[in-house]
Amino acid sequence: MSVSNTGYRIQQLIKNPFSHKFIYQNGHLPYFSNPNSLLKSLVFVRSKFAFAQQKSDDMHRHTKHYLSQLHQAAADCIRENKSFKWFKLPLLEYLKKHPTDENTYALLLNGNSRDKDFIINLYQKAKNVSEVNILLSNLALRHLLRNGHFDEAFKIFKEQDHINLSNIGEMFSRCKDEQTLHQIWNITDEKIRTFAVQDAKVIWKEYITAFAKFNYEEALRFVLSLEERSSEHWIPLFEVPGDKKDIRMLHGLLHTIIRDRFPLKYVHPVLFIALAKIYPWKVFRAFQGKKVTGATPEENFLLQQITSKSLFQINQLSQYSIYKIPMIGFLANDQLKLAEEVILFAEDSNRKIDGSMYLCYFESIMARGLLRDCVRWMRVMASKDLYQVQFAYRKVINMSLEHKEITVAQQLAREASVKGVNIGFMLRQKLKELKIPAKP
User: Fold this and answer.
1) Using one digit for the tens of pLDDT, what is the confidence trace for 365-377?
2) Last residue of a domain, one of 97, 118, 149
3) Same domain membership, residue 437 and residue 321
4) Residue 417 and residue 162: Cα distance in Å, rounded?
5) pTM tops 0.70
6) Which of 200, 281, 356, 437 is deepest in the core (most CB within 10 A)?
7) Domain range enclosing 46
8) What is the phi/psi pair of residue 295, to 5°?
9) Which residues contact 374 (CB under 8 A, 6 or more apart)?
């Protein structure tokens, strides 16, 4: 049976689900690995119970129950990263009769999150239906943003009044130019003031971070113009001096904060990260409690902030290892071996260390396309039983396929299977297409 024919017949059957006695097992739609299995079951139900047509009210109740289970099956499909195409036609058919059903809109958008044209068309279709505007606009905007379609997302942003805070923050972070950034800020400024302070923190942080990247001096002046300043206003300003490796800019920022009488303990983590990006080795030595020589007065002033007290405070406030800070500094300077030495030092010294430190290093070498190093480091993570190892296996197997290292992919797929690591449905399908067994 062809894919298109299968989809059509499911679409027809969904209009008239007769009895739920066979379809439901303990109140749930059984799992079907492919739509043909679902279709056969529906056909059987139809033939088995066709003679027992229910009254219209019973039919409505059964149909509603069936469709709720279809929604659940579609949601499970999205969560498990399986192919959504089998659910698209039935859900679109249902939407024709129930154009305000929010669950169906959400499933269709999440299941087709990378299809720009589909998202825009569905949004246009539902734009005049007030009951779904809030949900639809936020989901559509988020998926467009995360797939690189900023201009299309910006159109939705300008049309709708009920964009949530996380989406506004993401608009700032993905903004292409300063002019558009200020447009977004002007549109949302009054709305931001109506939110609770705690809720608006993410907005301030993303806006000032983006502003500083476009125009650091103006961003600093903006922060100083505010009546009250908190860590959410100061912290974003540290990213630019660190990325630019500008010690004078960093020195000036710290002096400004001191003059403002803002407690330094709240900015110490980002200050040390910025400093580590500029002088990773000096920061690492200071973290070890060793004396740093050959530093300029500006450098000394900044390095003197690294004290046993400040490190203790960071250690107490954060769930992450403080040694992640010098490691980030070495990674920012492409000194991978030294970054790995920081991890080994933290391990050997019985310092507080966590899975995120391993993952940070792993993602850094993965971003550089270093397949052999990724394989080696993934096995290090596996030996420590870190929960991130499932993510690591998936990424490295996928990378090995991209590098056309089929033997490596095969070996890792078997290794993952032996360890009981779930590499995911889509990756298993890819391995199957390449005739690479995912089982030993």
Assistant:
1) 999 999 999 999 9
2) 97
3) no
4) 45
5) yes
6) 200
7) 1-97
8) -95, 150
9) 362, 365, 366, 392, 395, 396, 399
